[in-house]
Amino acid sequence: MALAVRMRVPCRALLCAGAQLRGAALGRPEWAAGGGDGARRFASLRVLVEPGAEGRVAVMKLKNPPVNSLSLDFLTEFLISLEKLENDKAFRGVVITSDCPNVFSAGLDLREMYGRNPGHYAEYWKAVQELWLRLYLSNLVLVAAINGSCPAGGCLMALTSDVRILSDSPKSVIGLNETLLGIVAPFWFKDTLVNTIGHRASERALQLGLLFPPAEALQVGLVDHVVPEDQVQSMALSVMAHWLAIPDHARQLTKAMMRKATADRLIKQREADIQNFVSFISRDSIQKSLQIYLEKLKQKKG
Ligand SMILES: CCCCCCCCCCCC/C=C/CC(=O)SCCNC(=O)CCNC(=O)[C@H](O)C(C)(C)COP(=O)(O)OP(=O)(O)OC[C@H]1O[C@@H](n2cnc3c(N)ncnc32)[C@H](O)[C@@H]1OP(=O)(O)O
User: What is the reported pLDDT for 302?
Assistant: First the structure.
């Protein structure tokens, strides 16, 4: 049944090969079965996957300290974990959350986009595209349990989920703040935001690089629920149960119907998008902006 409606990213085989290569580059696969749940529990260096209490639901904990920045190695491990879950028919839903205190994800790793060579930028961007496509078109129910700050690429990742739960903490701000760094959110970041909060709200949020505090994020529709931090996980599981009450095939076809056109826009021009990214990020002015931003982050500490 699920096979009939399974969405596929066309360049899947290519990425799989890429992911395996990256896995090899990491030195060892690191997948370790553990505990009484046997093969259903696995972990890599930076991604911990364990079955939730509800069964058929996995909890994926991101643990790339200090801030879950999306480095190339982290993206690769994330992709491999997701692929394993997609292929394991025991699972119908995944709660994605952070193992780093107060931060869901700081977004793309700035060190992957600063001071490197064009080949590296291209490889990195391809992995970013792939993670977005895999998450956005996932057959699983994805619930983002956002237990901390969620800027830029972190927000993009959360926006690919079917539901977002945000912790009610002053640190839990969320948004696409790229313009504050002097960079531009690519069209598919923009499309994902527009699909969630509409055109006018997106235009304002993107131009101003807004990071919404919880109450405003809820009001604009960027997240679906705001709850105290200690209830984020239980709320995510409760929402998940609601979504899992719907037959998979009907829900999956509906999800595909809603999302395919947006994903296809990138799929049709992936190479051009990579070239755009490489030439944009390689500009002296953009490298200077990133350098200043990285210095500001360091100075913040004091
Ligand atoms: C003509 C038009 C053409 C258009 C073409 C378009 C082409 C594409 C354009 C390019 C688009 C690129 C898209 C990028 C999206 C992104 O995701 S960029 C990343 C944006 N992220 C942020 O702005 C978040 C920055 N971080 C923070 O604000 C804070 O760290 C935090 C709020 C997340 C956490 O704060 P705190 O807990 O206080 O930790 P810190 O002390 O700040 O940080 C600890 C440590 O981590 C380092 N760090 C933080 N964020 C990042 C990051 N994103 N990448 C790498 N490293 C990061 C920080 O520097 C500290 O390091 P040290 O301990 O000092 O070494």
Answer: 63
